[in-house]
């Protein structure tokens, strides 16, 4: 049985995520008191295989009951009950925007500023986020993008495949470090094509920009060392049962250096037969300023 606990920040997309899980055949329960997790798990096990996939939404709406979640998870672990935690996150700016658009009050600040409630919630969820198996940052995701990520991890193919899924993510530091990063590398020490007039208007996916970035001595040495590090780390993550690894590579704007290097790392891992994908979060940030719709 696959037993998934869905949690995260209010406004980060938990409702949409659980809808996607329902579409994948999961038996979903929203806002179950944590003290009932063990009992619910026992009922599922005793269903003689009729319930194979379960998703439970747990968040701060549970009030004082939510404080018992960590203790309940410890009980499950002590009794060798296997479960996974899916944590939905988003930047403060995006969460505030979503609350304003929906005209909702934050559960932890019903009569105050939304940003204050978000800060309190982050503090309460810090330990739970540290325990999460999968973290999805929905700050720049459309509904269809979130659905694809849920399908990738929790669909039939994702259920069978236990090898860690690696995402190589380029980003711009001026737009913030991706909150779901596992490993973050700063490549701003590499010469910047932005200052070369004939390269400035292109991205790191352009062959001339790519050639310029990858021909630098600093780049070649960095890529070699990162390749060695990942070859050491990935098997260790898999041994510990990690399902997802986000390798974030950042430059100033996320358009030139980080894109070219992320693509290079993606190609290296692909040739090794790894489950790997590449994403460029900020490659068009200056062009497309559209908001998130979740």
From TrEMBL:
<dbReference type="InterPro" id="IPR027417">
    <property type="entry name" value="P-loop_NTPase"/>
</dbReference>
<dbReference type="InterPro" id="IPR053930">
    <property type="entry name" value="RapZ-like_N"/>
</dbReference>
<keyword id="KW-0067">ATP-binding</keyword>
<protein>
    <submittedName>
        <fullName>UPF0042 nucleotide-binding protein</fullName>
    </submittedName>
</protein>
<dbReference type="Pfam" id="PF03668">
    <property type="entry name" value="RapZ-like_N"/>
</dbReference>
<keyword id="KW-0342">GTP-binding</keyword>
<dbReference type="Pfam" id="PF22740">
    <property type="entry name" value="PapZ_C"/>
</dbReference>
<feature type="domain" description="RapZ-like N-terminal">
    <location>
        <begin position="1"/>
        <end position="155"/>
    </location>
</feature>
<feature type="binding site">
    <location>
        <begin position="8"/>
        <end position="15"/>
    </location>
    <ligand>
        <name>ATP</name>
    </ligand>
</feature>
<dbReference type="InterPro" id="IPR005337">
    <property type="entry name" value="RapZ-like"/>
</dbReference>
<dbReference type="GO" id="GO:0005525">
    <property type="term" value="F:GTP binding"/>
</dbReference>
<keyword id="KW-0175">Coiled coil</keyword>
<dbReference type="GO" id="GO:0005524">
    <property type="term" value="F:ATP binding"/>
</dbReference>
<feature type="coiled-coil region">
    <location>
        <begin position="136"/>
        <end position="163"/>
    </location>
</feature>
<dbReference type="InterPro" id="IPR053931">
    <property type="entry name" value="RapZ_C"/>
</dbReference>
<feature type="binding site">
    <location>
        <begin position="59"/>
        <end position="62"/>
    </location>
    <ligand>
        <name>GTP</name>
    </ligand>
</feature>
<keyword id="KW-0547">Nucleotide-binding</keyword>
<feature type="domain" description="RapZ C-terminal">
    <location>
        <begin position="165"/>
        <end position="283"/>
    </location>
</feature>
